[in-house]
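pls design
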């Protein structure tokens, strides 16, 4: 048994492997002599791979609209050249080259504000089901909640083109409903991670699973761009039909290969099951004590996670929903260039996220960083990188390749978030990991709803460099201010209200 340093707070005690020290305390569950199975295909890896594919499709169905809307909107109706006399505030257009795809006039006369409402409508529904999704996963199991969330999102994605033809209001309603069904996915997965993944694997495991969001964006943007360029059914509806269909196919395999807990898995290696159960504190044993809502909402460490996630989401969704529009209207990339280059920041973030998570777990295992310092350090990297990328894009001006290098370079550090605040919920309250993630993710995605709406207000009728630079300054400032709040109030201790009220 290791001896704790009496001069250090519980937050600053190192993490030890032998006694499975987690979040400042020793997990006394018998684990000595229990080894992981040497089988290459472990049950938790299968679960992680299916979760990764699920998030790939979740984000593919979420972001395809960012590309499709460029083909859907009649730009000649929405353009406003009232500021054209100020040539220094506009980027010069590139002469068209052979093979340049020029989209036909879109069918919908939506101005920038309307487009902002459409792009943000998803998040209005999304924030409503985060907390219920986490709680339902804790009670009924994450397999059902996560799976159904993606299945119904896929169905709504397929009917999205029909809703768009019916009118703006039906389309917005479908987007809200899509957010409503998808809102359960992240908290449900967080609840499953708490039951399936040993503490010393959580950073890299979460990076694998949640990196599906970056991978889905990387896949969705170019594929959606290519589908929009086709003449079949006007092109853009195919972006919805394709990814929606894949979501339904994925759901069948999810039902066949994934289980709520290692104990329920019918094909798991007994040695792997013993290893997982010996490594994870039995936070789910006994009767359901209910959720200590007042204690949770009065917890500063919980609010620290919520605030920094809000800042990071503002920056992330500014980039996610608006980068294709910025590249089209300001930098004047054509549709296919837009769809192939827009994924670069997410591809780089995916790669960096995997590398950082391996490094974070290694530093924890060797005692070089305490859990609290690890959370704070990597969260700061995840906030600082995207903020610098926005400032770099401002500095680059109309230099198209430099703008992309800034966004894909500094922006790649956003991948460090998996070793930052993303696992902090399990540290604070393993019993309520799903509920806690639902609360903070709902708060964060409120910013996801506000960001495109605010962008629409700022640039409405004035597609200029100055207006877009204001958008970038705002995103960078909110992100860094939120990280400062996290540095002050974050904790890695399991909270007293997590341990039950008996």
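designed seq:
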């Amino acid at each position: 048994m290791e001896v704790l340093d009496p001069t250090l707070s519980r937050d600053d005690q190192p993490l030890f492997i032998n006694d499975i020290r987690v979040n400042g305390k020793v997990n006394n569950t018998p684990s000595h002599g229990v080894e992981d199975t040497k089988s290459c295909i472990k049950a938790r890896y299968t679960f992680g791979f299916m979760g990764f594919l699920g998030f790939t499709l979740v984000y593919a169905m979420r972001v395809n609209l960012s590309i499709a809307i460029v083909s859907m909107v009649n730009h000649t109706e929405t353009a406003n050249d009232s500021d054209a006399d100020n040539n220094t505030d506009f980027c010069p257009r590139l002469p068209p080259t052979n093979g340049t795809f020029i989209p036909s006039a879109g069918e919908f006369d939506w101005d920038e504000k309307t487009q902002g409402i459409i792009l943000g409508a998803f998040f209005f529904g999304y924030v409503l089901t985060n907390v219920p999704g986490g709680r339902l996963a804790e009670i009924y199991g994450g397999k059902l909640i996560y799976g159904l969330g993606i299945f119904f999102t896929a169905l709504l994605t397929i009917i999205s083109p029909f809703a768009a033809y019916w009118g703006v209001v039906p389309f917005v309603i479908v987007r809200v409903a899509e957010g409503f069904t998808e809102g359960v996915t992240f908290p449900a997965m967080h609840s499953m991670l708490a039951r399936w993944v040993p503490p010393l694997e959580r950073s890299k495991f979460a990076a694998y699973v949640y990196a599906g969001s970056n991978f889905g964006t990387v896949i969705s943007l170019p594929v959606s761009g290519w589908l929009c360029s086709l003449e079949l059914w006007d092109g853009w509806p195919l972006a919805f039909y394709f990814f929606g269909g894949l979501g339904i196919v994925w759901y069948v395999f999810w039902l066949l290969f994934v289980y709520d807990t290692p104990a329920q898995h019918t094909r798991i290696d007994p040695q792997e099951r013993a290893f997982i159960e010996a490594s994870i504190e039995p936070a789910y044993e006994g009767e359901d004590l209910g959720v200590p809502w007042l204690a949770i909402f009065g917890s500063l460490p919980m609010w620290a996670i919520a605030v920094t996630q809000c800042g990071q989401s503002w920056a992330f969704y500014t980039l996610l929903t608006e980068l294709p529009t910025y590249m089209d209207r300001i930098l004047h990339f054509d549709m296919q260039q837009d769809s192939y280059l827009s994924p670069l920041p997410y591809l780089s973030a995916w790669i960096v996220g995997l590398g950082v998570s391996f490094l974070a777990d290694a530093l924890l295992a060797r005692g070089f960083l305490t859990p609290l310092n690890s959370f704070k350090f990597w969260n700061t990297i995840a906030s600082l990188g995207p903020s610098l990328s926005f400032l770099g894009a401002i500095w680059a001006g109309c230099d198209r390749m430099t703008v992309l290098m800034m966004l894909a370079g500094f922006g790649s550090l956003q991948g460090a978030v998996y070793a930052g605040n993303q696992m902090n919920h399990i540290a604070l309250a393993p019993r309520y990991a799903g509920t806690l993630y639902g609360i903070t993710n709902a708060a964060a995605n409120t910013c996801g709803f506000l960001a495109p709406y605010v962008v629409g207000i700022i640039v409405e009728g004035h597609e200029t460099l100055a207006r877009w630079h204001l958008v970038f300054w705002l995103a960078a400032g909110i992100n860094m201010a939120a990280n400062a709040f996290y540095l002050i109030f974050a904790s890695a201790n399991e909270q007293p209200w997590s341990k039950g009220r008996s």
